[in-house]
Write a structure and sequence with these properties.
This protein is mainly beta. The protein contains no helices and four strands. The strands form two sheets. It has a two-stranded antiparallel sheet with strand order 1-4. Strand 2 and strand 3 form a beta hairpin.
Length: 69
């Protein structure tokens, strides 16, 4: 099993991808990835997975985005 907790921040294998338009940010705070974005923008993390990984599970907390997550 492969697990990423982000407790110590992002490792060098992670790449932050942000929209080319203003209004999106991605930070790591208290072991969680936090994305703040205006509508019609994108922000995400990307990395290569180990070869034996067959599935990815992510927990999302929409916070107060009015269901736009």
């Amino acid at each position: 099993m492969f697990e990423e907790s982000f407790e110590t921040g992002l490792g060098p294998e992670w790449e932050i991808r942000l929209t080319n338009h203003p209004g999106a940010s991605l930070t790591v705070e208290a072991g969680a990835v936090r994305i703040h974005s205006q509508g019609n923008r994108c922000a995400f993390l990307e990395r290569a997975l180990p070869p034996d990984v067959g599935m990815v599970v992510a927990r999302l907390s929409p916070g107060n985005d009015n269901g736009q997550t």
